[in-house]
């Protein structure tokens, strides 16, 4: 599990096409410190498994499903990426609960700079719009952000200078893709309250009764 607090702005140093998958090598001296084979690292919000690492770089394999559902397939040598290690038990949850399971992709629609922050508008797939609410949480390229405004096919976020300087969102331009992960709690609530999750409620005194 992650929190959406980016630890490091890394860089893609190699991409190998494996046919039905890709192998990425990424530079990230902070996130690779103490890393072991099999550890997880979030790359632009996608949870990847460390295959090997040395000299501040690590290798991860990305299967076709992940390439299809995320923007990782668009990465090339030199691309900058947001990196985060999993949260250790007992640490503060600085952002919100992030699984590293991308739900879909959006695109940067427009940017409106201000003196001390910037408003960024991002397109939203129709099947995800019901999970995004004003002042709720959403993960964009692995960054935990608060939704400012939520529309039927878009949402906006307000970015402070730290986020602009230390993450990929400071560099994304209109038309650039971003990975989106909605709040997992909203999906569980929908499942529990939906038709498949509805269960009969026993009346007082009828527990254990059968028809």
Q: How would you explain this protein's 3D organization?
A:
- Catalyzes the dismutation of two molecules of 6,7-dimethyl-8-ribityllumazine, resulting in the formation of riboflavin and 5-amino-6-(D-ribitylamino)uracil.
- Lumazine-binding repeats lie at residues 1-96, 97-193.
- Homotrimer.
- Its EC number is 2.5.1.9.
- It catalyses: 2 6,7-dimethyl-8-(1-D-ribityl)lumazine + H(+) = 5-amino-6-(D-ribitylamino)uracil + riboflavin.
- It is a single chain.
- The chain has 211 residues and is mainly β.
- It has 2 domains: 8-84, Elongation Factor Tu (Ef-tu), domain 3, CATH 2.40.30.20; 104-195, Beta Barrel (Elongation Factor Tu (Ef-tu), domain 3).
- 10% of the residues lie in helices and 38% in strands.
- It contains 3 helices and 13 strands, in the order E-E-E-E-E-E-H-E-E-E-E-E-E-H-E-H.
- The strands form 2 sheets. It has a 7-stranded antiparallel β-sheet with strand order 4-3-7-1-2-6-5. Strands 8-9-12-11-10-13 form a 6-stranded antiparallel beta barrel.
- Strand 8 (104-113) and strand 9 form a beta hairpin.
- The radius of gyration is 19 Å and the shape is globular.
């Amino acid at each position: 599990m992650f929190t959406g607090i980016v630890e490091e702005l890394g860089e893609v140093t190699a991409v190998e096409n494996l046919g039905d998958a890709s192998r990425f090598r990424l530079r990230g001296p902070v996130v690779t410190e103490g890393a072991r084979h099999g550890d997880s690292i979030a790359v632009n919000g996608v949870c990847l498994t460390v295959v090997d690492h040395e000299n501040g770089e690590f290798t991860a394999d990305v299967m076709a499903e992940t390439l299809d559902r995320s923007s990782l397939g668009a990465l090339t040598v030199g691309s900058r990426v947001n990196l985060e290690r999993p949260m250790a038990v007992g640490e503060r949850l600085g952002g919100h609960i992030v699984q590293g399971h991308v739900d879909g992709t959006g695109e940067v629609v427009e940017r409106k700079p201000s003196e001390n922050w910037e408003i960024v508008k991002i397109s939203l797939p129709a099947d995800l719009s019901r999970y995004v609410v004003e002042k709720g949480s959403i993960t964009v390229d692995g960054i935990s952000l608060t939704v400012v405004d939520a529309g039927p096919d878009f949402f906006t976020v307000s970015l402070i200078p730290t986020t602009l300087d230390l993450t990929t969102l400071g560099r994304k331009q209109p038309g650039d893709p971003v990975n989106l992960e909605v709040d997992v709690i909203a999906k569980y609530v929908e499942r529990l309250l939906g038709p498949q999750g509805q269960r009969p409620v026993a009346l007082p005194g009828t527990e254990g009764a059968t028809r």
